[in-house]
Amino acid sequence: ILAPPAPTMADARATLERVWGHADFRGMQAEVVAEILAGRDVMAVLPTGGGKSVCYQIPAMLRPGLGLVVSPLIALMTDQVEALKQQGVAAARLDSGVSMDDRSAIWRQAKAGELDLLYVSPEGLAQPHLIDRLHDLPLSLIAIDEAHCVSQWGHDFRPDYRTLGRLAELFPGVPRIAVTATADARTRDDIVRSLRLDGARVVVDSFARPNLQLSAVRKENGSRARTDAAVIELVRHRRGKSGVVYCGSRDGCERVAQALKDAGTNAIAYHAGMDARERDKRLERFLAEDGAVMVATIAFGMGVDKADVRFVIHADPPGSLEAYWQEIGRAGRDGEPAEGITLYGPSDIAWALRRLDSRPMAEEVKAVQVRKARQLFAMLDGATCRPQTVRRYFGEGAADRCGVCDICQDPPALFDATVPAQKALAAVQRLGERFGKTRVIDHLLGKTKDVQPWETNLSTWAIGADTAMHTWRDVVDHLMFEGLLVEDPNDGKPLVMLGDAEAVRGVYRGERVIEVRLTPARVSAPR
Ligand code: ADP
Ligand code: ZN
What we know:
Blueprint: H1 9-20, H2 29-37, E1 42-45, H3 53-62, E2 66-70, H4 74-86, E3 91-94, H5 100-111, E4 117-120, H6 122-125, H7 128-135, E5 139-144, H8 167-170, E6 176-180, H9 185-194, E7 201-204, E8 212-218, H10 224-236, E9 243-246, H11 250-262, E10 267-270, H12 276-288, E11 293-296, E12 311-314, H13 321-328, E13 338-344, H14 346-358, H15 363-380, H16 386-393, H17 406-409, E14 414-416, H18 418-430, H19 437-445, H20 453-456, H21 469-481, E15 485-488, E16 495-498, H22 501-508, E17 515-517
Parallel strand pairs: 1-6, 1-7, 2-4, 2-5, 3-4, 5-6, 8-13, 9-11, 9-12, 10-11, 12-13
Antiparallel strand pairs: 14-17, 15-16
Helix pairs in contact: 1-3, 2-3, 14-15, 18-19, 19-21
């Protein structure tokens, strides 16, 4: 008997056109599909909205056998499977919500060779009987969606993903594909190692999102009311457009949503404090209603596919550049112009570090997360093109300036603050890391009230009298964003301390140039 001819790229294109109505593959999709069609393992790093799912769906339809898809969220699975079924693709999912009868039907269908795609959760795969049943079937491929969940360096670590490496031994010869939108070099290595994708080709698509216009605005320290007012202003200026406002806490989320509603916006609050049904209802409203603005915590995220989101505003910044890119990446998925606006302030980085510190995790993991938070703040308070910074961080060395972000449009004036930085670091050190920001600045200016001789005797007393107070604030804040100074909470009376010792030494020795923006864009006072 003749074996059926192996599927070709022409078949793949025909399927893309027939089932999805897309004229051709875009970006690196074609390369990824070609690898799997040839039966080889592949790891695909494609940006959000880059069309990761068809990369495995099409080969699963074309290759003989069942395509197994491991996906981290039931909501994600449900969406994908429902969409596939509507398009006439034989797909099913097995999760805790599927009845016994439906399960039997799915297995019958699979046995009869009538099923192209089966979605399962990593927990589901941990059950031996499921593996046994899969062993009886020919598999076309194994796809691991959102593969960064395997890495504790990533921001969505799922311990269950750790066990997926054994699929390599359980199903030898079945091509495996790992897909993710976020992976810096370290996470990428981790994915390859954990999932035993040693020989896999790693395909990394460009992370450019030319239709996104990005900007960042400095918050006034401690003024929540002003930040809220600024968010309302921003949303009001975009009335009628659909958007997402990310908040760092559930309280903040409820508060901002209410304020937006009071201002006449169709705002919907969304966070993990609501039960699943309520969240689903709210998500449906967001998808269905015109000009809806989702005010959410990070509980709102993975798998949200609304094409015409015109803006993403961070009322509070995320935890890393990966999270930043993924979250602002939810805007403009239709390719039309969209905006990403991030509000950030010194209290945000202090809060982020405090929260990390209180988390139960290994010290080395914590250290990486702290570094990631700092890199994000350095970008936000920095003076280089925002997409260029992020894409270089993702390993795209050749990324050019975007030309449309706030930095490209209006390059900020910088001044060389290396000497002031040395003075500020020395002052913090001499003062014994026992004082807050205002007091440190007063010391630099020589303005401390009721000053004692021990202080005037310090070599740092009044060494900054030649510089304006607001400049000192900008310098000290910037040193915090760069991690050279840290704010220790000290029960609500934060103390300024020295940051990473090696980095601080670099500044003292003049090896590290500190550039500070003369006038960072700031949240404006409410009118
Ligand atoms: P991701 O999972 O990478 O975020 P999806 O797989 O959800 O992205 O795809 C995002 C959108 O892009 C979907 O609406 C999808 O139909 C569309 N899409 C995928 N591939 C193509 C293509 N080759 N041409 C045009 N649109 C595409
Ligand atoms: Zn730019």
